[in-house]
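Hi team,

Filling in the usual template for the complex we talked about on Friday. All components are listed, including any nucleic acid strands or ligand strings, so the model treats them as one assembly.

SUBMITTER: L.P.
PURPOSE: interface mapping
COMPONENTS: two
RESIDUES: 225
SEQUENCES:
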Amino acid sequence: DAGITQSPRHKVTETGTPVTLRCHQTENHRYMYWYRQDPGHGLRLIHYSYGVKDTDKGEVSDGYSVSRSKTEDFLLTLESATSSQTSVYFCAIKGLAGNTGELFFGEGSRLTVL
Amino acid sequence: TQLLEQSPQFLSIQEGENLTVYCNSSSVFSSLQWYRQEPGEGPVLLVTVVTGGEVKKLKRLTFQFGDARKDSSLHITAAQTGDTGLYLCAGADNYGQNFVFGPGTRLSVLP
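RESULT (copied from the run log):
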């Protein structure tokens, strides 16, 4: 158990509304990631963080923003949700196995945008 | 952009059969990982391979990293129904900071 909690686990919202997903870790890991998972695409990186207030974009960052004001929390915000952002969102932290590391994932947040 | 392809996309076999799934790329990765994901859960790491030509075994699962560190295979011997799931490969960049995932192979092992 890597101590990762995602909230909410399920959310239904309407197009144009803001949405924030939260990822909380209890083990003080430096690297945190937000991925989205869609059929046929596997996991695609949205944003990642390498420390407090240090974040960078992934391959599918358009329409998303992130914040990391504390080591333990990494927030993903959809400023104005669109139907194309309907997906399952996974937060991950990188373990400390040298340079290779390994990713520990949360249980996912299923978002439906109507 | 580094891309990973996986084949086959879907695989349905009978319990006791052997199978191999593949992960291929035109890019070189510093390491490659295999994850298994069950419905409603996040992926869980099975193995990390680092050295070209490396072979790792995990009970009935055998993982191989290509000599050029661009591809990998996962072989399952005598599949069991508990092996059912989505198998994802992921390549790490040179710094081990970012991971690119393949689209996955969805395996169904029937009793």
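MY TAKE: The CA atoms of residues 90 and 101 of chain B lie 4 Å apart. Chain B touches chain A through 29 residues (CB under 8 Å).

Thanks, L.
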